[in-house]
């Protein structure tokens, strides 16, 4: 017997304002990304932030690692504001963040959030002092802080202490379990310390980045059960290409399905010369296929088989998908709600008509040996039959007309089939 199935209720977390964006609470899961330019290169960084924002990144993190990059941040913010790109910027600080924020107040003000790693702000007494300095600056400027623990730069004093305590137990945990516990404790203890210093809970986001799927699931499960801080999900060093996509989707998909996670980043290693916006698309697609958010119209297409020796359906599906991606920045403004559109491009008669009927608009192209006709279905009803060498172009025109009729302004705001 079939039973209803869906994601677990969203874990209740304290909402955090990051510029115009809210993380946690009842807000949708937020997509963010990070530049890989030298932040001191204002032109290159502005260009990449604009590209990431255009692709749909709702927050963009930039590296602030030295004086020159800190000095560049206000100019980057000013340039972005001048061209109407108001995406909030997050400063990524390691080792000397306390000094850079103190010596470059324009940087501290221009950023919407600071990301600090409690494992590398200093050692012993310096660690507490440097951490306090950053938190005090954040509180003074009204900024949010992400306390980002990382597997590769974990607080070694904490890890060593937990290892020693574990050895004294009658039934000790494994080394891996101790490291997971150290990650969780580092994040929670640091958050508690930030609150003591004066940073309110609604300005704190936690993350605990690891590189293995099962570790990420275990660590975030513990973080979610022990507190109500907003959580940033991400698999660090996820890898390149399909490996990075699969690992990120498997781990974050599981957590999201269980109601854990308020903002995500898919940390893909780009191909040499590759497009940095790829990680934004993957994050959006993960949230969309799981039913959490809609970002772009979905194009359903069959994988092909011996019935589909023609490549027309593949070429048409790619053309439609690329056209949608390229047009979305304009369409979001011009056609509110268009991101929920579903298009089907099918390659033969087996599933073509059925899939096309389920979509808002779909086409069933002729497979090998089938009559050279392509029925088009709009809102579940057969609306036209296309023939001849211009099938692909004609269907594209029908899709654009449907979008205009259904999502456009004025009296034409109704399904195109009516």
TrEMBL record:
EC number: 1.17.7.3
Listed pathway(s): Isoprenoid biosynthesis; isopentenyl diphosphate biosynthesis via DXP pathway; isopentenyl diphosphate from 1-deoxy-D-xylulose 5-phosphate: step 5/6
Residue sites binding [4Fe-4S] cluster per the record: 302, 305, 348, 355
Pfam families: GcpE (PF04551), GcpE_C (PF26540)
EC class: oxidoreductase
Keywords: 4Fe-4S, Iron, Iron-sulfur, Isoprene biosynthesis, Metal-binding, Oxidoreductase
Family matches, as InterPro entries: Dihydropteroate_synth-like_sf (IPR011005), IspG_bac (IPR016425), IspG_bac-typ (IPR004588), IspG_C (IPR058579), IspG_TIM (IPR058578), NO2/SO3_Rdtase_4Fe4S_sf (IPR045854)
Superkingdom to which the source organism belongs: Bacteria
Ranges of residues in domain IspG C-terminal: 299-398
GO molecular function list: 4 iron, 4 sulfur cluster binding; 4-hydroxy-3-methylbut-2-en-1-yl diphosphate synthase activity (ferredoxin); 4-hydroxy-3-methylbut-2-enyl-diphosphate synthase activity (flavodoxin); iron ion binding
Entry cofactors: [4Fe-4S] cluster
Residues of the IspG TIM-barrel domain: 15-283
GO biological process: one example: terpenoid biosynthetic process
Cited HAMAP family: IspG
Protein's job: Converts 2C-methyl-D-erythritol 2,4-cyclodiphosphate (ME-2,4cPP) into 1-hydroxy-2-methyl-2-(E)-butenyl 4-diphosphate.
Protein name per Swiss-Prot or TrEMBL: 4-hydroxy-3-methylbut-2-en-1-yl diphosphate synthase (flavodoxin)
Origin organism lineage: Bacteria, Pseudomonadati, Pseudomonadota, Alphaproteobacteria, Hyphomicrobiales
Gene: ispG
